[in-house]
Amino acid sequence: MKLYSSITVTVIFIAFLFLVTACSKRQIIYLPVVEDYLFAQNYDKKNLRVGVIAGPYGDMFMEAIMPPLERMGYTAVLIHYNDFTSPNFALAHHEIDLNIFQHYIYLGNFKFENDMALSAISEIPTVSMGIYSNKYRSVSEFNRGITVSVPDDFTNLARALIVLEDASIIKLSPFIDKSKATIDDIVSNPFQIRIVPIEARRLADSLGIYDVSVINGNYAVSNGLKLSEALYNEVLAENYVNVIAVRTEDISAPFVRDIINVLHSDEYKQIIINPDGKFADFQRPRSFVDRLKRRQVE
To answer: I need a surface site. Which of 73, 104, 194, 282 has the fewest CB within 10 A?
Structure first.
């Protein structure tokens, strides 16, 4: 009897261990869901999250690009950021689907430095950087030793220095890549200006502190400054034209294809070139101008 009792206890104990193990395994089993079978490149996204910063490009997307997209069944929401870095991190981390705020050089440097797979899909009309002042009405009035605020991020600082050189305020070394210029590359400073790098979003407000400011176009417009009020307006080099960026993995996605088709449409171009519209003074991409010229010849 004792032998049978021992065997019975042993069997019950083994069964108990099996049940416990089985239950434990069931606790970590996760059944697949529908999303597991959807590949990103085949997913027809219709609800777009668009990253923007202060300025006119969110308006451009909603007023000039979005109407045709709505007729295709798309919806969109603008996600606003306060700095240049956040929209690219958000894009890379799938928090948004595209962004519209930056030029080629900024995008190229940013994705290289942060190892991000982001790609430009198209150029857009762009507001030029400008030299503004509440104190002076022209560059010829500058006094020696004035203070000039400029953007403090690497690419736009270089860009501001190029603008100051083009306006004959400073001269940069001819032996450098000017897209990477720093304050140390100034070889001639006849006005003896003092350059003060600050956050780009604070440049317009800094006009009350500094004599002159070199302001990114988006921040100038968002702060109520007019391009016609600038002492000098940048003539954009090709690499400083703004672009729409997406994740490289989405480069062939249907929503990207549809956005590109809109940007090539007559409806979009007519909104941009409307002389009474808010985008009339924007510098247009070379390809945009070339297409208009070809159509006029035809």
So the answer is: 73
Which of these, 185, 133, 182, lies nearest to 159 by C-alpha position?
Answer: 182
Nearest CA-CA partner of 249 in 116, 123, 153, 131: 116
Letter for the amino acid at 188?
S
Of 207, 210, 134, 133, the closest CA to residue 167 belongs to 133
AA identity, residue 33: V
Tell the CATH topology of 44-126+240-297: D-Maltodextrin-Binding Protein; domain 2 (3.40.190)
Taking only the tens place, the pLDDT of each residue in 231-249 is 999 998 888 999 999 999 9
Q: Is 269 helix (H, G, I), strand (E, B) or coil?
A: helix
Fold of 130-235: D-Maltodextrin-Binding Protein; domain 2 (3.40.190)
Mean of all residue pLDDT scores within the chain: 87
Asked if residue 120 lies in contact with residue 240, where contact means CB atoms within 8 angstroms, the answer is no
Helix-helix angle 286-297:266-273, to 10 degrees: 110
| Rounded distance between C-alpha atoms, residue 177 and residue 274, angstroms | 37
Predicted TM-score (pTM) of the model is 0.77
Specify which residues 283 forms β-bridges with.
126
